[in-house]
UniProtKB/TrEMBL annotation, chain A:
It comes from Daphnia pulex. This is Methyltransferase HEMK2. It catalyses: methylarsonous acid + S-adenosyl-L-methionine = dimethylarsinate + S-adenosyl-L-homocysteine + 2 H(+); L-lysyl-[histone] + S-adenosyl-L-methionine = N(6)-methyl-L-lysyl-[histone] + S-adenosyl-L-homocysteine + H(+). The lineage of its organism: Eukaryota, Metazoa, Ecdysozoa, Arthropoda, Crustacea. GO terms for molecular function: nucleic acid binding; protein methyltransferase activity; protein-glutamine N-methyltransferase activity; S-adenosylmethionine-dependent methyltransferase activity. Belongs to the eukaryotic/archaeal PrmC-related family. GO terms for biological process: methylation. It is found in: Nucleus.
TrEMBL record, chain B:
Belongs to the TRM112 family. Keywords: Cytoplasm, Nucleus. Its main location: cytoplasm. GO terms for molecular function: protein heterodimerization activity. One of its GO terms (cellular component) is perinuclear region of cytoplasm. The lineage of its organism: Eukaryota, Metazoa, Ecdysozoa, Arthropoda, Crustacea. This is Multifunctional methyltransferase subunit TRM112-like protein. It comes from Daphnia pulex (Water flea). The gene is EOG090X0LTV. The keyword Cytoplasm applies. SUPFAM superfamilies: Trm112p-like. The keyword Cytoplasm applies.
Length: 218, 124
């Protein structure tokens, strides 16, 4: 199998879908590029459960699943019901099996998912906004509005990482400069997880990075 | 929603729920999709599966006594067992219906194969 991630076919989606679901943009493509550069590592990890939080159009997990194949189970979570539906359609369109759950972060997967996630991918709502812009009534706002420093949603996930990840689990996170990379690395360090930047790119006004985290082995 | 997914879903996040697992299934539409059988993957997955909950889910869907009550010894080399596990985990899909919290009876709808596990603010 090739170590390349083919960009999934999204021709089934139109501008009406993108009124309620985040349309893939530079951040989505940077995550795909990051994962592509990691394919040899990911294959050596032999993940059994791969989870993406905030799958949106489903482009990232579909691309990954298409590349890795049936040696892994793929779960996709989105708080936005439209996104959950669209992710499922994208998977079907590209002939891959993804399991989709409409929920807020990993709430309903606890504690069953404890120590089981081998690979986690999160392209969070990272744009710094007022807290009230994280509006549960606006599915599209939930895809990008990140509150103070753009950290509100990702900060809720970080403490759960040590709990949900398997011993050799790996976590990929997309951030922008304003999210404060140093501080995120320190937060994760306090949970005994170490991280580093694996790819970065300037896209218009955004300086995007993908961080890779692994448990500090003792 | 495959039974694999049912196997990891709980209603523990609801206020007052202590275990919230396994969720009951009331299926209105079930589909069986053929999925490539990968014995090596299924062997790895079995280590992560709550087997009694899978048996219960199968029973909920009317498949009584089709799965052994416990994971057999040496399952990695037992193709018949792995194929059964594969079928129940990967091929049976609840397309429409409800998942039921075992403690409160709260229903979580499954629509077009997607469980809606969103809880209202006053429920958590």
């Amino acid at each position: 199998m090739m170590d390349k991630i083919e960009t999934p076919d999204l021709s089934h989606l139109n501008s009406t879908d993108y009124e309620n679901v985040y349309e893939p943009a530079e951040d989505s493509f940077l995550m795909l590029d990051a994962l592509e550069s990691e394919i040899p590592f990911i294959k050596s990890l032999k993940p059994t459960i791969c989870l993406e939080i905030g799958s949106g159009s489903g482009i990232v997990l579909t691309g990954l699943a298409k590349c890795l194949g049936s040696c892994c189970a793929y779960f996709s979570i989105d708080i936005n019901p439209h996104a959950a539906q669209v992710t499922r359609k994208t998977a079907c369109k590209n002939s891959v099996c993804l399991e989709v759950v409409n929920c807020d972060l990993v709430g309903p997967l606890l504690p069953q998912i404890q120590n089981k996630v081998d690979m986690l991918v999160f392209n969070p709502p990272y744009v710094p906004t007022d807290e009230n812009e994280i509006d549960p009534l606006s599915p599209i706002a939930l895809s990008w509005a990140g509150g103070f420093r753009g950290r509100t949603v990702m900060d809720r996930l970080f403490p759960l990482i040590p709990q949900i990840m398997s011993p050799s689990g790996v976590f990929y996170l997309l951030i922008v400069k304003e999210n404060d990379e140093e501080d995120i690395l320190n937060v994760m360090k306090s949970f005994s997880w170490r991280g580093s930047v694996i790819i970065e790119r300037k896209a218009g006004r955004e300086f995007l990075k993908v961080l890779k985290f692994e448990r500090v082995k003792v | 929603m495959k039974l694999l997914t049912h196997n990891i879903l709980t209603s523990k996040c609801l206020k007052g729920v202590t275990v919230g697992y396994p969720l009951g299934i009331v299926a209105k539409e079930v589909k069986v999709n053929e999925v490539d059988f990968n014995p090596e993957f299924i062997s790895r997955m079995i280590q992560k599966v709550d087997w009694p909950a899978l048996c219960k889910a199968a029973e909920n869907l009317g498949h009584t006594d089709e799965l052994p009550q416990t994971v057999v010894d040496d399952y990695e080399n037992n193709e018949e067992f792995l194929k059964k596990a594969h079928h129940f985990l990967m091929e049976i899909e609840v397309m429409n219906g409800d998942l039921i919290c075992p403690e409160t009876g709260r229903k979580f709808p499954v629509t077009d194969g997607i469980p809606n596990m969103l809880a209202n603010e006053d429920e958590v």
